[in-house]
Amino acid sequence: MPVRPPLLHHHDGTPFRDLNHNGTMEPYEDPRLPVEDRVADLLARMTLEEKAGLMCHGRMLPPADGTPPADGALSADGASGAPGGPGGGPGTGTPSTLPTDAEHIAARHINHFALMAVPPPAAMARWNNHVQDLAAATRLGIPVTLSSDPRHGFTANPATAHSGEGFSAGPEPIGLAATDDPGLVREFAAATAAELRAVGIRLALHPMADLATEPRWARISGTFGEDADRAGRMLDAYIRGMQGDRLDGTSVACMVKHFPGHGPQALGEDAHFAAGRAQAFPGRNLAHHLRPFEAAFAAGAAQVMPCYAIPSGTGLAEVGAGYNRDVVTGLLRERYGFDGVVCTDFNALTGMEIPGLATLPARAWGVEHLSVPERLVTMLDAGVDQLGGETCPELIVAAVRSGAVGEERIDASVRRVLRDKFRLGLFEDPYVDPERAAPLVGTPRTRRLGRTVQRRSLVGLSGSAEPFTTARRTKPGSPADTGNPADPGNPADPGNLTDPGNLTDPGNPADPENLAVYAENIAPAALARYGRTVATPEEADVAVLRLAAPYEHREGLLERHFHSGSLEFPAEEAARLRAVCAAVPTAISVFLDRPAVLAPLTGPAGPALLIGDFGADDDLVLDAVFGGVPLEGVLPFDLPSSMRAVAESREDVPFDTAAPLWRCGHRAPAGEGAQERFAPHL
């Protein structure tokens, strides 16, 4: 097993980590020196192979228990005798679905890894320390940077976001925008960062600065909505919450994406797939999509990821943004003066082989005709610094040795990458405490905060909670509702007794056993606080339904996780929902990961109460329905009236669908809150 380098002391008493194992404090090991001086010293010591490894940002799948393998080897799929991945999972022993290489760190000099899964906090902390020990045993001891897509929401998509794993859940980023409260967003982002730091994750592959101007696009839940000004405010708060006011040892660095704006996808198709290779700018509105990035740069975003797609119709080169010198050098470097790390979106260069399941092509949109070495040279000429998802430093070495790329160009990128490692304090201490990790992740305070953000993001679209609160009051029985039970997701947490997001009506005298509720997609334990479950609407006093926004099911290992296509409920489903509403007073909450067409749920045939949510626990939705808790959220995009209106709108222009049912910025009336009836803009 690797031996952790000891903490030594310089002759003047300065403590340092002896990363190159020579017993002397070299300038790059000296914590007193300016970052730029340390970077220059380390860069001068590196071989071309070591530099090339630093420019690869691979993937990693830790074992489920975080236990290092007996031989000390590292595999990029979490080997320790138990590979796994999509369809298997870490530690399951199923066939690996990610490429393995026990020498990624030691031989290939790769020391950036995006985590494809995260084991429980203590296990993840142990794994981080094992990885850092492996890095410390290399010639120069350059520490590893572990990164991750979002892990604090409700979406589970292996290519874009994750949920669970013990982290405190808030709504999706679109729900953060729905709170319209930058102070609350910054507080939640800071809590998120603290949990990530506790397990060793120091680079966030988020936030998204893209605008939700094309309603069909599958990635809208990861954005801050359609309004560029609101998105800018949210980005400022989120980045400052994650990083602080400057990048240092208390920060989680943010990689803002997908420059210069991924929202205007042609026909709403996502650029992970060939159908979404191009964007559309019929409104010539690129400048509008740059505005949220300007806010991110002003907030100090450390890194940037360009999008896969071709910015067609903008006057920029007709190649994907990661290959596009007009985008990376012209816009990002020269116009905006950005000198941080630019990392390509993942597997834009070589694609990905998933043994036994699928081969995912490179998202090399616009340069498919080029060979892989030619693509690499094009990327480097464009100005990128790291290759997302790639573990092929030999291609970079070959490009330099062939004369296609100068080593000074490689040095410029390595300098940026090293700078962030030093600023994050990784050279001083990349380790975390496994015994403290579990108590620091998912604390009562951060869970309460996450639930508060969830509650604040709920948007009242139409109707009133009055039929449901009345039904509770008029059912005879004993007072069984205690008003503030503990969070059902963390029943041992007494701190949740004060959760302001879990309020009910403490004066309600009804016995839950006497209120018959027909429910769909709601946990029975949460519903038991308010009523007993019945099997059909006809048996019920009231009905409460939680629905996903409509989408078209797609085939394919990854594409099935992307909600794309039509935003309308199929006719049969719309008729079924209206039949439930006709049978009994009904509340419907729709998870708006995209701007759904909710026309069938409006008017007299619709529900008594219609809510838009962006990821919220069942009991919080039920509190809004039964408890009279105000619906405070602000709609972060227009909700269109029809798919025809969507098809006729321009992908790059906000608020462009004709006669939307609800406008961006809609909020349920104040005053009586959920008791007051309100309606769409018909």
Automatic annotation (TrEMBL):
This is beta-glucosidase. Residues 9-20 have a biased composition (Basic and acidic residues). It is an enzyme of class 3 (hydrolase). Its EC number is 3.2.1.21. It comes from the Bacteria. The keyword Membrane does not apply. Belongs to the glycosyl hydrolase 3 family. PANTHER family: LYSOSOMAL BETA GLUCOSIDASE, PERIPLASMIC BETA-GLUCOSIDASE-RELATED. It catalyses: Hydrolysis of terminal, non-reducing beta-D-glucosyl residues with release of beta-D-glucose. InterPro entries: Cellulose_Degrad_GH3 (IPR051915), GH (IPR017853), Glyco_hydro_3_C_sf (IPR036881), Glyco_hydro_3_N (IPR001764), Glyco_hydro_3_N_sf (IPR036962). Residues 62-80 have a biased composition (Low complexity). One of its GO terms (molecular function) is hydrolase activity. Keywords: Glycosidase, Hydrolase, Signal. Residues 118-419 form the Glycoside hydrolase family 3 N-terminal domain. Residues 445-454 have a biased composition (Basic residues). Residues 81-92 have a biased composition (Gly residues). Residues 1-33, 59-99, 442-513 are annotated as: Disordered. Transmembrane segments: none annotated. It comes from Streptomyces stephensoniae.
